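Sample pair:
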Amino acid sequence: MITLGQWRRAMGAGVIFVVLLVVGVMISLSNSPDIKKKDTQATAAAKYVTYLSDSGHRAGIIVGAYLIVLAALAYIWFAQALRTSVTSTSFSGRAIAGLATFAGGGVAVGAVLYASPAGSYSFGDEPLPAGDTARVVMDVFVPCLLLVFGLATALILAIMAVGLRRAGTFPSWVSYTAWLGVLGGIFAVEFLPILLPLLWFLVFAIVGLVRPPSALVVSRQQPVAATTAPLDDRA
């Protein structure tokens, strides 16, 4: 069991996680080239070289990666409160913590790889990589976000949906809507459904800030009245 203060800080981390991840992904993808199916290999490679040659695009890619890594750290912190709200059993708690670490680590690795061509050129002495090399390295980010993060998050939300219903620590609609987040994580390969689990996490964090579980409020340390034993009277 965590303290009320720790709970509120974790809920704050949940809000920060959602905001940073959405903003970081938007910044990163807005600074990446628009590759179309009709483009040839040479055309796609040339687009990557053109974007990476622009300092503004490189800065956007690097800033987006920083935000995504920070979001991953906040997600792992947030997960410590998620496991507390569901159940005190060791299996569910370890599953949520492990899946959150896997999901956060996966999306962070993807963001670092996405920014590595721009970072090696901007901060190091290395030349820009070939367009094909940059495309292969940077394209790892999307599977990390939509598959690794999406599927791991879907499993976390499935555990949350069942555990919240049993624990009764939150209103019933919170556990029911978690299943929408599960579907969003499973079908995240279409990209937009990934917003469903993120929206659920944001709502959960806000509800958790406004209405923390009663067990945390009751267990908050209360001042204990000092008692003194009466002294024996001596004649």
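Residues 221-235 have pLDDT under 50 and may be disordered.
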